[in-house]
């Protein structure tokens, strides 16, 4: 009976050893997977830390540059002569702009008067197709127009709501498809 017990004991030990080897292998593979995950996460954290360091360096350099610019501006503002020169330059430019605006308004008024006189003159007429104004008795073959009818469906080129039957295009796509004499 002792032999059997011994034998049983040795079998049990062998069996226990076998299970523990399997468990050890399983634990080792589990540890390897965990180590791989931790290593991967560690590498990602390293990259993030490098990015943060680079961002901090950039911000510090930018901050130093801004501080230098601020010091220069403050020193310029403390210099009363510098500030006065800037004010004088700004005032000169504003006066020049006001003078230019006055001159432009005068020119605009003159152009509007001349345009009204021309349009109301009996010797001038406007083309009903293109709106070109010209003297009575003159007519050139420079009128660009659409001879077709205006339809309201869809332009073949851009898809607008209106188009001409002569070329299936609208005024935005083609100002005119035919050249001819102006029509009073």
UniProtKB/TrEMBL annotation:
KW Coiled coil (keyword) present: yes
Record's keyword annotation contains Coiled coil: yes
Chain segments annotated as coiled-coil in the UniProt record: 87-121
Keyword vocabulary terms for this entry: Coiled coil
Protein name: Uncharacterized protein
Organism for this UniProt entry: Paramecium octaurelia
Origin organism lineage: Eukaryota, Sar, Alveolata, Ciliophora, Intramacronucleata
């Amino acid at each position: 009976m002792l032999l059997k017990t011994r034998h049983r004991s040795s079998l049990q030990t062998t069996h226990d050893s076998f299970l523990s080897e399997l468990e050890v292998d399983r634990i080792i593979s589990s540890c390897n997977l965990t180590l791989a995950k931790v290593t991967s996460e560690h590498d990602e954290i390293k990259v993030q830390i490098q990015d943060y360091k680079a961002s901090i360096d950039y911000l510090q350099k930018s901050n130093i540059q801004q501080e230098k610019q601020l010091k220069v501006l403050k020193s310029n503002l403390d210099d009363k002569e510098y500030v006065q020169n800037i004010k004088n330059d700004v005032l000169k430019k504003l006066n020049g702009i006001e003078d230019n605006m006055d001159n432009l308004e005068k020119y605009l008024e003159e152009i509007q008067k001349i345009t009204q006189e021309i349009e109301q003159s009996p010797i001038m007429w406007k083309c009903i197709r293109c709106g070109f104004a010209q003297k009575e008795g003159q007519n050139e073959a420079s009128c660009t127009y659409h001879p077709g009818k205006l339809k309201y469906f869809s332009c073949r080129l851009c898809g607008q709501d209106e188009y001409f039957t002569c070329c299936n295009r609208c005024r935005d796509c083609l100002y005119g498809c035919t050249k001819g004499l102006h029509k009073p």
